[in-house]
Design brief:
The protein is 48% helix and 21% strand. With 383 residues, the chain is of the alpha+beta class. The longest helix has 29 residues, at 15-43.
């Protein structure tokens, strides 16, 4: 079942999905910096080169900047359309069918940020006491945002994302610890209680990350709805039954390039178009829950050199959420670069340099066969 393979990463290579992931990480960095500067300002730390008003001004401006990036994160997520998340899901927690708990944490983060921003703008009208009470929500907002990123982000296990999360945690925990040690407005008892609550919360987040988002197969356990997986499965299946490519003979295939490849080359000189036919299989899961989907195809033309696409990752409802891949065409190798719908994008390095491949495939589930068309172009798209 290759459907979940395509579903898992298909849109991850579009500009909107890149922007969604990047804006989410940047939002966490900005929120962490906002919390740290707010603590610096509340403690009253100052030097000749860093007056207190500078901390306050930067804290306020970073807060607005953070809200802007959160808004960008929401808009790009909704516009991408890969998962059924709407604008209401961004403000009403735990309503989306896609990972409701973890996306709900994101909605809570946005709601708390808006509450802090609105009351800050109305500070003169509602009074300092009411404003300060709402402003304390920023301390609650940060761990919720961290949980949202860990649980719903598709990059949680990547080294860059892990580094960003660790740096943010260290910065905020260090600032809070400094606040508890130097804060003159708290009694010793309140400081101890705050420290214990913070330590327990941080430990809980660490355990959640270790047993959840950082382990293989999290995409399925996180709450991707069965309805969504079924919808994506039907989408790929309809592509296999409605297209005539599977039954089209080679004589009626799209026109091929007039440039004949050398008999010693597996990858022709681009641009080219070929029909492909072959088989596909899904391996049994290993001890880590990893499975592989292997597409073994033979493109038309001369020479008839086998083309193999192997996609490996955590098992998701009979498919695989891609974590690694390999493309082999004769002795030329490469990797999958995009999966969207029934199209697989890949890059291989042949004797003429890197070639961008696009495979529009149709699967016969009953027979375990695959067919379709293969096109090649230079990696800059000029052909």
């Amino acid at each position: 079942m290759i459907t979940p393979v395509v579903a898992s990463v298909g849109h991850g290579y579009t500009a909107l999905w890149y922007l969604t992931r990047a804006s989410g990480l940047v939002s966490l960095v900005l929120l962490s910096a906002t919390v740290v500067l707010g603590i610096v300002s509340s403690v009253g730390w100052t030097t000749e080169r860093w007056p207190r008003f500078l901390s306050q001004s930067m804290h306020r401006n970073l807060s607005l900047f953070c809200i802007g990036f959160v808004a960008l994160h929401v808009v790009t997520t909704v516009a991408d359309g890969y998962v059924p998340i709407g604008f209401l899901d961004a403000v009403i927690p735990f309503q989306t069918p896609y990972r409701p708990l973890w996306v709900g944490f994101g909605a809570l983060t946005l709601d708390l940020l808006l509450a802090v921003a609105i009351t800050s703008g109305l500070r003169k009208h509602i009074g300092v006491r009411a404003w300060r009470g709402v402003h304390w929500l920023a301390y609650l907002c940060w761990p919720i945002a961290l949980l949202h990123g860990l649980g719903s982000g598709s990059d949680t296990r990547l080294s860059l994302a892990l580094m960003v999360n660790v740096v943010c945690v260290v910065a905020v925990v260090g600032a809070v610890g400094w606040r508890l040690v130097t804060g003159r407005t708290f009694s010793p008892g309140r400081r101890i209680v705050a420290a214990v609550v913070g330590a327990v919360g941080l430990t809980a987040i660490g355990i959640t990350a270790a047993l959840g988002p950082l382990r293989p197969g999290w995409s399925h356990r996180a709450g991707t709805s069965a309805a969504l997986l079924t919808q994506l499965n039907a989408s790929f299946a309809s592509g296999g039954t409605s297209s005539s490519a599977a039954s089209t003979p080679a004589a009626s295939a799209p026109a091929q390039s007039n440039t004949a490849p050398s008999t010693n080359d597996a990858v022709p000189v681009p641009p080219f178009t070929r029909t492909v036919a072959g088989t596909y299989r899904t391996s049994a899961a290993n001890q880590s829950g990893q499975v592989s989907v292997v597409l073994s195809m033979t493109p038309s033309g001369t020479p008839a050199t086998p083309l193999t696409v192997t996609i490996t990752g955590a098992s998701v409802n009979g498919g695989v959420a891609m974590s690694s891949s390999q493309v082999t065409w004769g002795q030329d190798t490469g990797s999958v670069t995009a999966l969207q719908g029934s199209t697989i994008g890949a890059t291989v390095k042949g004797p003429h340099g890197s070639v961008q491949l696009s495979m529009r495939l149709n699967l016969d589930r009953a027979q375990g066969t695959v067919s379709g068309t293969l096109t090649g172009s230079t990696t800059n798209g000029t052909g």
